[in-house]
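hey so i finally got around to running the thing on that chain from the lab meeting. sorry it took forever, my laptop kept dying and i had to restart like 3 times. anyway pasting the input first so we r on the same page abt which one it is
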Amino acid sequence: MRIFRLYQINKVLLQHGLDELIPDRWMPWYARAMRRCIFWINNQYKDKTAGQRITLALQSLGPVFIKFGQMLSTRRDLLHPAIANELARLQDKVAPFPSDKAQDIIRQSLGITHLDELFSDFQVEPLASASIAQVHAATLRSNQKNVVVKVLRPDIRKTIEADMDLLFTLAQVLQKWLPDGKRLRPVEVVTEYQKTLVDELDLLRESANGIQLRRNFEGSDALYIPAIYSELCRHNVLVMERIYGIPVSNIDALLAQNTNMKLLAERGVEVFFTQVFRDSFFHADMHPGNIFVSPENPSQPKYIAIDFGIVGTLNKEDKRYLAENFVAFFNRDYRKVAQLHADSGWVPADTNIDEFEMAIRTVCEPIFQKPLADISFGNVLLQLFNTARRFNMVVQPQLVLLQKTLLYIEGLGRQLYPQLDLWKTAKPFLENWMQEQVGIKAMLNKVKSNLPYWSEKLPDMPDLLHDSMLQLKALPIQQRKEHQRLVDMQIQATRAAHYSIVGATFIIVAAILPIYDLPWGLTALSATVGVGCWMRSWRKGHREQQ
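ok and heres what got predicted. didnt touch it at all, straight out
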């Protein structure tokens, strides 16, 4: 199965002529030789541009590859604009599956015979179609609210499982044979990625995520989350309030209505850090196809987010280390950044902190006080990879989703407002959050949250204190008894060993005596004494164990 899927992938790549896009100097001789051997597979899309061929190939290969294309589409600083524009089609313009099939799934899942039992209007043509599902516009019969109905692609799970199976195989090979295999931890990364994809296949989980995000940002000026009709949601169907916004990637439309682009970019940073550090629950699929801008108040723009299939969470330790790293980084305290990495176990404990600090300074210092437009992200990324390899920095699989989301946010910031000073925008937010976590206010909040538990246990405190004092008083006597018991056990063990040695000696003597012309009684006596000593040794050892 894995070999067949690998052949399919290679076939699709060759049919779309993607091998022709690789410069000859980058392709080793054996790769060129193998390509000539597969002479029966030719480029069938010679009339298409490079961007169109890449997009069609990723679309043919399925959701795992489409997700990769979606992420690449946000990195216009790394790709040619024509290729990035074509890849952007993967955000919501993937080829849809037949609408009659979608209607059958909705009827079966919701237990209805006809769609008009629930919807006074249902648009057959999908509004958008992505890698996992497609959405149809509809109007609820009960309240005439405009909604969208999201339907999972049929048999999508089989395709994803086949691709993940192949990725696991490749990850195992890389982890075993690459020099950096153990440090990069590809198997753990693929495991984390598989978990997020499997979660995305359950629309009931997505509905719960949407409800949680909506509650977190209730009344927010920066982000709006549409309402979820949970009573109409199933594992493969989701019904949600229809939103009307401008796609965040449509810069021309945003400029045409005089949107405050600077504030919009700053609010994007605010939304990201709020989700991560305040809520520890963040939208982890924030590509432009899932993010819109409300047209209601261009001077105070508000984001609208959809598609909550992939969310990320952080535990307290990771969140604290990340926040401290960010604050130290924004304050250019590279020594603290290096020390935090060592304390958290992200680099080996024996790392030379002075050298690590200098390496971080070399990468980060040139990009400070520069807007996003003046930062070569590709160059920074390359330097970070080299630094990670040099100091044997271990990949943290639990942070992969966060890193991917940060790439999306940074990519959106470049498109919306290239002059954005990311550091200046994020620093005050993180400093305030840190003060709330470690200051007097944080201590009072913790006391307040623990007060009900303490008040419940307070009446038991005198008894617990009395019992503890009695145990403390009896502790020296118990320690003396335990010490004497250990001494007795040691004496018993020593005696058992002695009897065992004596018994072995007599058994050996009993085995040797028949060689000489001696009475058999001596042999029997020696054997009897040896067995008796062994029995004595066993009893003492058994008594010791008891």
